[in-house]
Amino acid sequence: xxxKRDKPSGRVSNRxxxxxxxxxxxxxxxxxxxxxxLVVITAGAGVVNPVLIAxxxxxxxFPTHVVNGHTVxxxxxxxxxxxxVGIMIxxxxxxxxxxxxxxxxxxxxxxxxxxxxRNRLYExxxxxxxxxxxGTRTGEIQSRLTNDVGGIQSVVTDTATSLLSNIVTxxxxxxxxxxxSWQLTVLSLAITPLFMxxxxxxxxxxxxxxxxAQESKAEISAITEETLSVSGMLLAKVFGRGSEEVVRFRKExxxxxxxxxxxxxIGRALFAVIGAFFSSAPALVYLIxxxxxxxxxxxxxxxxxxxxxxxxxxxxxxxxxxxxxxxVSIEIQASLALFERIFDYLKMPHDIVDRxxxxxxxxxxxxxxxxxxxxxxxxxxGTFGPMTxxxxxxxxxxxxxxxxxxxxxxxxxxxxRRDWAIEDVSFEVKPGQLAAIVGPSGAGKTTISYLIPxxxxxxxxxxxxxxxxxxxxxxxxxxxxxxxxxxxxxLFHASVRRNLTYAKPDATQEELEAAARAAFIHxxxxxxxxxxxxxxxxxxxxxxxxEKQRLAIARVVLKSPRVLILDEATSALDTTSERLVQAxxxxxxxxxxxxxxxHRLSTILAADVIFVIDRGRLLEQGTHAELLRRGGAxxxxxxxxxxxxxxxxxCEDGMxxxxxxxxxxxxxxxxx
Length: 672
What we know:
Elements: H1 14-23, H2 29-61, E1 64-67, E2 70-73, H3 78-126, H4 130-134, H5 138-151, H6 153-180, H7 182-189, H8 192-227, H9 230-239, H10 242-265, H11 268-295, H12 305-346, E3 370-377, E4 392-393, E5 416-417, E6 422-429, E7 434-438, H13 445-451, E8 460-465, E9 468-469, H14 475-481, E10 482-486, H15 496-500, H16 509-518, H17 522-526, H18 545-559, E11 563-567, H19 575-589, E12 593-598, E13 609-614, E14 617-622, H20 624-630, H21 633-642, E15 649-650, E16 656-658, E17 661-662
Parallel strand pairs: 7-12, 7-13, 10-11, 11-12
Antiparallel strand pairs: 1-2, 3-6, 3-8, 4-5, 8-9, 13-14, 15-16, 16-17
Helix pairs in contact: 1-12, 2-3, 2-6, 2-12, 3-5, 3-6, 5-8, 5-12, 6-7, 6-12, 8-10, 8-12, 11-12, 16-18, 18-19, 20-21
């Protein structure tokens, strides 16, 4: 469990990331325009009251008149004061109402963008081939879909609007301040460029730390997904590794906590200095104004009292958006790291896609003729598929011994690198035939089974279904026509009904029961507490191995595919469960092409044709009797498994099959 962290494919420029991020809002131009209009109105209206303060002080409360160079105070203008106060209160109420509307529209647009992004990412991941999922941990995928997308929510819903609002507020306030006093405005903005430079530097560091923090979150997600699942917990308890897993989790959790502390502290000292400067700026204005007024010696002062009050009020409106914008810029830099991780997944190409001229073929029109024509296949370097042995190949094919491939540490003469998982394999399974593929682990059997439904594409050669390359069918057509029963049955943590109807969502209760009876599982289902509505538990752990396999078979019966692939479907079961599953498979095999993969030869003796695969090559093919008479690799494996007749293969009817000679009919319901 564990492994290296998945790394992004490469750093992307900020400009490109911002362009990609802006592209998320393309379908919401009207909403964005409405938000911009509301922001301009509220931000612009916010300047009116501070400007009116100067009028209130200088004209309504303290009106003056200059006589012989001296300023004379006039009586309060109550009528004007009432009008001005009414306007100020009205503006406050209107801007508040517009602010509520702005918040609603902003969140609506933002949440729709988030919804579409999550849908887009999930849909893109659904379209990735099996190759991607065999090389990527589930926890990493979950982290990008939840942690990364969730981490940019505030940016999408709040930050963009906040940035626009601050810009409008800043510009309108700056204009009003310049009108009141350009000298005081220059004083107020003198040190701002220095703050902006340090903010940019802090943002770059914040982005790097955010990237590391998200990678750490992905690692924690992977650890919890691996170790707290039923399978992972069972493995940890069996091997007594619970304490070690706790240590591993604590170590990564400690790393994440330290990164979170650094992430929060980046720029905080800068903001403290900015806050101190902005808080003390009004006091400096008072001081300078005092010197100017004192220097006038009682004559007409160049700065009116209302101007000072209005200016300091505007100053707070100026400093708040500047501080907010500096903070937002750091948050945006951090969020770019999250966008980079998300777009890193979205830009991954789908390697298994429909051709432009792919044909839609109904499953009922497919006969089920499967043919491999000089097929070659290899996994990408660094990407592991279902192969379980080292990729080596001797100069000549090595016969299978004891049903197992040679150990990776065994000396092999003339050993060279095995370049192909499947190498120049050609065979045909005719409609309605039961074909068996046998060979040691890592021989390429499961790889062939993955090529047929196009979970992977062949590297060279062609795989044909009814004489047409599978790449010329739509993927949906192949999915309708081909189905698999694997050794490890996957069941959702849902009801029996939900697991069965996954194959046919519109199935009726009668169809469910018919499929369950065909799989010999109906009686077991109705004996459960809630019958077909009983939860099967995480990965079906409330069911036995044989019961899970029979549920999987019932699911396939419900789908009724034209081509059925059985990938060692009974190799992990006890004899009783195996025979029940074999009996459940018997009606499923009738009338459809079946390809069974098996280690135990006793399960495929009645196959119409048997293909022997070793190290990606086809060694032999024929019926059981033909292969025994030939005395090749298959016969040697058979002799090893049954020890020259001293160990007997018991058939379904109780008769036996001795080595080299069939003395009774073979089982009629073989399983993979």
